[in-house]
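Protocol check, entry for the methods section draft. Step 1: assemble the input record (protein sequence plus ligand SMILES). Step 2: submit for complex structure prediction. Step 3: store the structure tokens unaltered in the notebook. Ligand used here: LST6JFWI. Step 1 record:
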Amino acid sequence: MAYDYAFVHLVYTIPLAGILTVILRPLLSRSDIWKTLAIILIAFFATLPWDSYLIRHSIWTYPPEAILGPRLFSIPAEELFFFIIQTYITALLYILLNKPMLHPQFLTNHEESSPATRRFRTYGQLLLSAAIIMGGFLITKGGEGTYLGLILIWACPFLLLTWTQSGYFLLKLPRACIVTPIIAPTLYLWLVDELALGRGTWAIESGTKLGWCLWGSLEVEEAVFFLVTNTLIVFGLAAFDRGTAVINTFPEIFPGTSRGMYFKSFLKAIVTTPEKYDMGRVRGIREAVCTLRRKSRSFYLASAVFPGSLRIDLILLYSFCRVADDLVDDSATNVEAEGWIQKLTGYLDRAYGGASTDVNSYAEKNFPVPSQSALKLLPTRLLPSAPLYELLEGFRMDLDFTDGKFPIENEADIQFYASRVASTVGELCLWLTFHHSATSLSKDEKTRLIQAATTMGYALQYVNIARDILVDAEMGRVYLPTDWLREESLTPRDILNNPKQPKAEMLRQKLLDLAFQKYEESRYTMNLLPSEVRGPLIVAVESYMEIGRVLREKSGIPSKTKRGRATVPGSRRLWVAWKNLNTS
Ligand SMILES: CC(C)=CCC/C(C)=C/CC/C(C)=C/CC/C(C)=C/[C@@H]1[C@@H](COP(=O)(O)OP(=O)(O)O)[C@]1(C)CC/C=C(\C)CC/C=C(\C)CCC=C(C)C
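Step 3, stored output:
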């Protein structure tokens, strides 16, 4: 019998915590670990005196035959463990559900919020204030409402504080990120409580309780207790995420904080009034996230595992590359496309010119509204200009597919093209990584990494070309080297006429072989990357290379295609990410 409460943990809490740990362990960033530890400590020390008071005043009791024996301030060891394990489970569930979310996009303020959101926040404040008053009243009155009063007076002031500080942020986040990690563990703990109270593991004494049950023997106070404690945990974590999002989003307000979270900056971020937020930047980040989600499932998934500020800058870089590529690709004529390339060059000239020329007004005058934020928010201060100009030269090479010309003559040409459109991107990603990583690398290590990123760029671009033979043919483009075609007695025009022919499939496999050769050459060097970015960069590369693996497996028309392009099923992408994070 002395093991009853311990048994509750062994059967109900520890296995669940274990499962969540196994799933989440590879996905946890340093910041996730810190915030989980912090919330556990806060929960532990905030509950300790309160719970001790309840036990010493016999509001709660534990039959001696149900517990092991050791106590701290009258609280049994199993109950102390409960504070920790409940917080841990709810925190991990919150982290899991929030992993795909880039929190900076949900920063908002009074001005930006809809009247309905403002009203909702005010109603929340009123409700929590009423709960505090009611708690005070029930305690003063004594008797049957005492326990409920003690719960309300203990939890609601903190809930009111976090709701007031982070209410707009909480309301902007998708409901599943906040409501699910509150409700799911609450229901689970209600069930556990029902079973535990039913077995007499712990008891709420009559005289200080209302005596109402929600169902079975689940007392209303217990139900409220689990609901408010899970809400406290989730609101606390959301407040932490809002503070971190503020630091990561506004580097000008928090210079130098990107190399580690400093407590002082964090406090400043928490108290910084949302009216001071640069909402133009927040809106730009939202647009960039939308673009990424719409256009690249591989990089969208990979972005979820990058640490805060690096994640933002990579998404902004993606957005710039995407917008620039689309402006050129979607042009009706070569003249129009060339015009965009010149304007983009003009933009880079100004952004890197060092003069006081107004780059933002250049973007506003020369580009369509939906593209402007992608240009304005490109993190040029962290990126060298040369790869960006090279990238534009790569887009210019696409214009050479005119008047029956096929500029990719041989393997050297395709590599040169890939170096311009993809190796440049790899190098740019690395510069962002170097800036945001806490580990400084030697010059030699950086050079080796950039060389590997160049080679990895070839690999990814070859996969891209292999995937898009059909789509490119529809645009009158054949990136397969003409001399490869010649060996098969084909011309580029034969591919345009019939991109699905068996010989095209054979050449696709040949290009994929080359892609995997380049991948093998550079993959090992990724081990030189600092630990906090190694896993995420490997996931980014591997999720894209997985497209190549799918194409190799099918070696024919792939069964799952989107606009004639092979796609990797969502579950397989998740597996690739999880597996690589686990082993990197
Ligand atoms: C996690 C995250 C948000 C990463 C962002 C990466 C990024 C900035 C990608 C830019 C992509 C882009 C739009 C570039 C324009 C030129 C272009 C189209 C290049 C092709 C990309 C494929 O994109 P997608 O399939 O969406 O394109 P289309 O629909 O066909 O238009 C490319 C294949 C290039 C991608 C190349 C990279 C991301 C570089 C990879 C290398 C590294 C990450 C470095 C690894 C480090 C070492 C040491 C090896």
